[in-house]
Every structure is written in C-alpha cells, then in structure tokens.
Amino acid sequence: MSTFIPTVRETFRYKGKEGQLAWIGHRLGGLGTLIFFIIHVVDTSWVYFWPQGYHHAIVLYRSWPFQIGELLLVLLVIYHGLNGLRITLMDWKPTLWRYQRQMTLGTFGLTVLFYIPAFIIMGSHALKNLLGIELF
Amino acid sequence: MTAPTSSLLHDRGRFEAYAWRLMRLSGILIIPLVFVHLAIMHLFNSVYTIDYQWVVEKRWALLGWRIYDAFLLWFAGLHGFNGLRNVLKDYVHHKLVYRGIVIAMLTVMMAVLGLGTIALIGAPFSPVF
User: Fold this and answer.
1) Domain range spanning residue B92?
2) Which candidate in B42, B60, B71, B125 is best for mutational testing of the A interface (most A CBs within 10 A)?
3) Percent of chain A scored above 90 by pLDDT?
C-alpha cells in the first residue's frame, strides 16, 4: 500500500508527452470499459432472468446521464482498440518503434476520425428522443 | 529469471506467457467483434429502438447472433479481467492482498460470464413477456 499513492500520483505527474498520454488513455479506457462490461452483461442477462428488470435498465439508459456515459464509453472503446492494435503491430514488427511518435499521434487522429461520425449519430439519437430535435 | 524487484507474484513462469498471448489473440479478435457490435447497437439502432421484444425477436431469435454474443462475452470478459489483473500488479505489491483481490476478481468474472452464458443459452426464441 505504501507504493500505491506515489504510483497513482506519478501516473499523472510524469512528463512522458504523447507516450504517457497514450498509456493513461489505454489504462483508463480499459478499466472504464470493464466496469461497463460487468453492468451491461448483468442487465442483458435479465432478458432471460428478469424481463421487467431489463426494461427498467433500458429506460435508465435512455436518460441524459447515461447518454453522456454512452458517448464517453464509445470514445474509450475506439481508442483502446486502436491503441491496442498499434501496440500489437509495434511488438510484431519492432522496426516500427522508429515511428513510435508518429504512430501514437496517428492513433489519436484515427480515434477522432472514427469518433466524429459516431458522436454525431449517437448525439442525434439522444437529441431526437430526449429533446424532439431532428437533425437528419 | 528473477529481477531484483520482482517476486513470486510477478514471475510465475508459463502462466504469464499464456496470459500475455491471450491478451494479444483476444484483443485482435475483439476489435472486429466490438466495432460491429457498436455500429449495430449504437449507430444503426440505439437504446431508443432496443428493448426486450427487439432482443428476443430481432437478435436472439437467430442462433448466429447468440454465438456472436457468446464470443464477444468470453473474449472481452477474459481480456478485461486479465487486463485488470495486469493493472493491479502495478499498484498492489503485497502478496496476500494481491491474492485476495485476484480471488475476488475471479469470483466476479465467473459470476458475470456465468450469467451471460446462461442467458444466451436459456433465453426464449420468441417473446414470453
């Protein structure tokens, strides 16, 4: 436990530039996705175990706080997947480490590129159903 | 191979090698599985179109989607919980504490994978509610 606090603190203080940002993002993305995964599997299993409970869960997911959570979750999943692919590629072909910085920045760029349409489409679902505003 | 700072915790021979391989293989498999899942559930559909009837009539009525979901459930579950264990190793260096947390995590993982698997096998092929 004596090492826990400094490890967490240095995670955010260490000035590792884009590499550090990539690492923190990968870790937070993984942990955040796992928390949602646990909740999501349990509530989806209610289709079999407790259909009324599944209905309650879906109603909850339709509210603003969960819609914002959904927007964040999809960003985390896209980033974690693409960054994991980058790490796998670099381990597979170590010569790629020469382009570590470019590949890391490329992963950020690709994440944004994938996320923009997802954000617009998911945002339009929420606007339409929560505020009655139709974008498309 | 025993590094100065490592202990039995960090150096458990072949298990860690298999765990590492699992992360790579499951990771590569999960990418298409999750991205297609996200596109179908969050873009082409949404929580405003998904409900009990939809899941039973449009998704789990087809065996193929149950198998798809089973792959996603197991690969994402093993990948996620092993990932959590890897993160834990960075922060918890006390052997007994580490072991206790891993046992708790395994319990949660088995419960989650068990619930998901039973639901995928047992859910009706047409609405009963």
Assistant:
1) 14-122
2) B42
3) 85
Q: For residue B119, give the nearest of A37, A49, A125 by CB distance.
A: A49
Instruction: Note the pLDDT tens digit of each residue in A89-118.
Output: 999 999 999 999 999 999 999 999 999 999
Calculate how close chain A gets to B62, using CA atoms only, in Å. 15
Query: For chain B, how are helix, strand and coil distributed in percent, rounded to 5?
Result: 75, 0, 25
Query: With 60 as the cut, is the pLDDT of residue A79 above it?
Result: yes
CATH number, domain A18-131: 1.20.1300.10
Is residue A81 within 8 angstroms of chain B, CB to CB? yes
Say if CB B53 and CB B127 are below 8 A apart.
yes
CA dist A129 and A106 (Å) reads: 35
Number of structural domains chain B divides into:
1
